[in-house]
Specification:
Elements (H helix, E strand, L loop, with lengths): L2 H21 L15 E6 L2 E4 L5 E10 L13 E9 L5 E2 L6 E4 L4 E5 L2 E9 L14 E8 L3
Antiparallel strand pairs: 1-9, 2-3, 3-4, 4-5, 4-6, 7-8, 8-9
Length: 149
């Protein structure tokens, strides 16, 4: 193998690595996540999203997850119970409906509070029968709409 071939191979590998690295997005769960503010949003656990200048939605925790694993046939789809906090102007906090929000696996759930409509679509990742879910891997998929100013 000559020097020119080695140099070209090394250059191609470098370009490939840089290209692949650019495809991955790093999410920092300790700070507010920069996401699309309305429409379909995926919010990681222990993260917040600033909905506008006044409101912030935080995904605090999952207290229950009895969803049917995707690789099993179940009679009942199961539920997941998530805890979210909506912080309004002046730091006022409210949890929609003043209780944990229960998500039924087969039906989206919508709540309207403080001029916002939140439709909880899915809790990710989906469970598998042979794997334990990492509690830090949870993400909530939702649709957010501003319904009043």
């Amino acid at each position: 193998m000559n020097r020119k071939t080695t140099y070209i191979d090394a250059t191609m590998i470098f370009i490939l690595v840089i290209s692949l690295a650019a495809c991955f997005e790093r999410i920092n769960n300790s700070a507010a996540v920069e996401l699309q503010k309305t429409g379909n949003v995926v919010l990681p656990i222990h993260s917040s999203i600033d909905l506008d200048d006044a409101y912030t939605l935080s995904f605090d925790r999952v207290s229950e997850d009895s969803r049917c694993p995707v690789d099993v046939v179940c009679v009942w789809a199961g539920n997941a119970k998530i805890h979210l906090t909506l912080t309004g102007p002046g730091g006022d906090t409210q949890t929609p409906n003043a209780m944990p929000i229960e998500i039924n696996t087969s039906n989206p759930v919508a709540h309207e509070i403080l001029g916002w409509r939140f439709e909880w679509l899915e809790l990710l990742p989906s469970p598998y029968s042979d794997q334990m879910l990492d509690s830090n891997a949870y993400r909530i998929k939702m649709n957010i709409t501003r319904i009043a100013e």
